[in-house]
Amino acid sequence: MVARPGGAPSRTPTTFAVGFLLLDALLLGYSGFALGRPMLVLWGGACLVAAGLVVLGWRRYRRLMTDLERARREMRAEVESIRALLHGKNLHN
Fold this sequence. Notes:
By secondary structure, the chain is mostly helical. It has one domain. The protein is about 80% helix and about 0% strand. The protein contains 2 helices and no strands. Helix 1 runs antiparallel to helix 2. It starts with 11 loop residues before the first helix and ends in a 5-residue tail after the last helix.
């Protein structure tokens, strides 16, 4: 994923992939029905399912990155509290 300056990943590649897969699904399904070729309709359905999987994967990725960032903040706060405790005991480590 492409990261933005704020650290959050960009949504552009995911949006492009989903849009491309949905367009493929639409065009394959339409041409399959128009030409009477069921395999094209099947591949259109496969593209539709793939677009859904990309969306689900993106949502899972965002949730995991949010959890990871929260855990980093908690760990940073814990380290700072240990530093303050050591500094209060005059143990400058």
